[in-house]
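Progress narrative, work stream C.
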Amino acid sequence: MTDTAPAPERDRVVGLSRAADGHPVPLAGRRALPRVGDDRLTSWAAAIGVALLALFLRLWRLGEPHQFEFDETYYAKDAWSLLNFGYVREYADDANEQILDGTVTGLWQDDPSMIVHPEVGKWLIALGQQLFGMDPFGWRFSAAVVGALSVLVMCRLARRLTGSTLLGCTAGLLLSLDGLHFVLSRVALLDIFLMFFTLSAVACVVADRDWHRAKLARLLGGADATATGWGPVRGLLFRPWLLGAGVCFGLAVGTKWTALYPLAAFGLLVWLWSAGARRSFGVRWATLRSAVVDGATAFVHLVVVALAVYLMSWTGWLIHAEEYEQHLSATQYTHHDGGQTWPTRDEPDAAGPGEVVQSLRSLWFYHRDLYAFHTHFLNDSDHTYQSMPSGWLLLNRPVGVAAETDIQPGVDGCDAPEGSDCLRQVLLIGTPTIWWGGILALLLSVATWLGARDWRAGVVVVGTASTWLPWLAYDDRPIFLFYAALTLPFVVLALVLAMGRLIGSSRAPTPRRTVGVVVAGSFVVLTLVNFAWFWPIWTNQLLTHSEWLDRIWFSRWI
């Protein structure tokens, strides 16, 4: 750009005269302006509409099958115990049969039960039981609602990343049409809650990136301002969106510990984004300086807040710490590799603040036993449906959570030919078009992040890496395909970002835009067809054996 350029154009650029696509590079303050349009009402209405559609699909015949599906046998009863006693108790051996027959009293013992996951997800399951009772609809209701809410969050996050209401709603629709998400929204497992809180935390982190840059510009005096020295500090010590992310991450870790990995990864990303923002405003040595002023702030908002929320989620346990000290302080997990009984077991009961400290120490020893369970006790175990995490993106081994087989012709509406039979099944498997297409989209995101430095692709890559790759270190114990539900939102974001690149940013009718719209639209339609095809094996529908085999594409899916 030369000095002969018109003044308004000359004032808009700094550093590089033009970007790789030929457009002028605006000043940092101008780049900090909101990227989304002014269709706030329309975008919210559309996102809520997609979420309501997802909710309808998830509530449809939610109480079927009338049985405990897979690990519902643990979480539904644990939730009921939390709701009625404040902590998880042991139960009678025939509790399942009696509960399904309508009996919910006289089944629980006084001794606490050794639970191996935190309690947030189970408390949410208990909310559905409080509303609708101790039956399949009641213990699945909260999962359905949270699944629909995660679709709403996805719509808003994708819109913020792309600046497009249409692409945002497409992301929400794709998430709602994935089989893993759909089935997990219809069973009382913990993973849908884990995914929702983690996705919400990431959405808050992305919103904080916009907020931080806009606040920097305002503190510096306007869109054309530059910074000196460290740049603004005091005005950025409180970051509301980052506080929300800390709360959500605390609830995610309070559901399953695996949320610790994305917490750490996105915490580092917040620091790097903050450093990049300061650098764009002219701060020298921005990475080091940001580590002091922004890194410390981010640590408090994310890690300290998440820890506080996590500890508060154990309030019921802490109130009943004495029961755990007396009955679970000398388990097989405690004595693994020569471990010792909790010291708090034989200590005199404290009072006042000392009692709080004593209960927290007991909780620490309890966590030590849980860690031993997850890292050592399960190493020699195996399971029919366990799968290698290296193949999760390929949908290598789905999980059958419920099945009724050998239904004879003429029974229960079975119209199979003579010599064959019918069956019902609920299979935890993703929608193939989303996951297989997502592999290509993820590769594109890696190339875009590294090659074009597109920060939005960084969200996808960091999210995928932090929710999937850590499982590769635990492939010697039973782990399951549905753990990849935590990676699913980033697969969907990769797909939508790829659609956005195909369509392009210009609204002018061009051959490239036409091809992009056709390809993106065809993918969405194909996903709808794929969802409809697998619907019967996600919703316990009656199928002949031949119809079922038409949907089981590989022998590993049986």
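Work stream C, second folded protein:
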Amino acid sequence: MKSDIEIAREVTLRKIDEVAQQIHIPIDELEHYGKYMAKLPIHLIKPEQIDRHHLILVTAITPTKAGVGKTTVSIGLGLGLNKIGKKALIALREPSLGPCFGMKGGAAGGGHAQVLPMENINLHFTGDFHAVTSAHNMIAALLDNYIYQNRGKGKGLKEIRWKRVLDVNDRSLRSIVTGLGGPLNGIPGESGFDITPASEIMAILCLASDTDDLRRRIGHIILGYTFDEQPFTVDDLGVAGAIMVLLKDALQPNLVQTTENTPAIIHGGPFANIAHGCNSILATRMALTYGEYVITEAGFGADLGAEKFFDIKCRKAGLTPCLTVLVATAQSLKLHGGIPEDKIKEQNLEGLRRGIPNLDKHIDNIQGFGQKVIVTFNKYATDTDEEIALIAEHCRRKGIGFALNNVYAQGGNGAIELARLVSETVEKSTPSPLRFTYDDEDPIKTKIEKVARKIYGASSVNYTSAAGKKLQQIESLPEAARYPVCIAKTQYSFSSDPKAVGVPRDFELTVRDLILNNGSEMIVVIMGDIMRMPGLPQVPQATKIDLVDGKIEGLS
């Protein structure tokens, strides 16, 4: 089969004006970024339309190195729904340059289910990531200047929490020393870089409801603490307005198209560990304004992605999906069943059976939110009819809808079975309100424990002494008590051990740190080793990316 970029190049793109007309967006409202991309002003969102339309969440079983194809399935489902006559829109996150040049090579879907122009989307796109990077680092520079200009005046900070960001995988920048070279170069101090998707500003951008809310959230960012233990914020620095100037265009969602020329809205890209891993609230609302069916996804598996989608994004935005689609593959289930990676392409029904509990745990969790759930089997060339039949029969016995999809090879035609199941399920079901994992009023420890026990299956949660002190510091701020918790741990296991595949039992979770993201209004709970600045692999994807005769090669 041809590569993703070869397939993408064979698609005759429609001008973005034509794409907008398909969903009745006035052309004169578009802010063009070339012929095939545009930004959508947020005043185009119509709240009265949102509740009339159907929001579908796509999530997955616990991810493995074999991959699950969640983004490809999300795009393919949108294509399939349009094939059967539904007016469907896709709302997804933007890719990060770091993983594109590191491990992934791209994150705009795959095969015949992609969002286009994939080269632009995977690279600089409309500059949203650059805007977040600039805004974050502008705050860092202004904070350093404040400390430098006020040295010796009793206005120093006891603790600085604000680092820098860069959308490049660079392990050498994780921990650095700034201000070297003499007093004219600032005050020496320890700092470091996170990758741009881990910036609190990225999370804020994706949770802001409008321009005023964005400004309010930026002003509330905690940069550090004074010597009398009071938080020092962007508002204290007096620069929220300047940061708004850098972010004003980035706040607007981006309109592009799919491999079948249907509209797609791509906006925002927060990490699914450190943040909530979803596209922006504004993009979702924009899609729900103009699409009868809106397909969106949440990062990683359902235990991290779907939980945060429900408990953080939906709680904040007042959204309620009418259905959740759970993506599974035979290869990943076999890995969860203990089959070695070099054997997962071979038929192994017993290994598949041993991996099914991972699927079941995610189904139970999603149903615990009050969601209707169906399973879609993402087909690979090596899958056998016996393997597919085994999973289909298991779902039938559980009373769970099941549909095979082959969107990678066939695009929308490969999702017709799934699209019909989705539309039939939605149209026959009465939406029920979401049941959150915890209440806003629950103590912070209770929120953490409810997620750990209900969603992950942990037997207990303990805290390091450092985490205990951070908890006390956060609890001393009354407004933080109602914030949702955003647990940061490995995506490869329900536990904090990435090697504990399947459904681990009777395990403990240790809270190592807590970070108050006062602007995005969430408490990040660190469990395990979480890398906020990834490194590059031994052979980075960058070695395969090139410009040949004016065309980009190597993206996937």
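The first helix runs from residue 4 to 10. No further action is required on this item.
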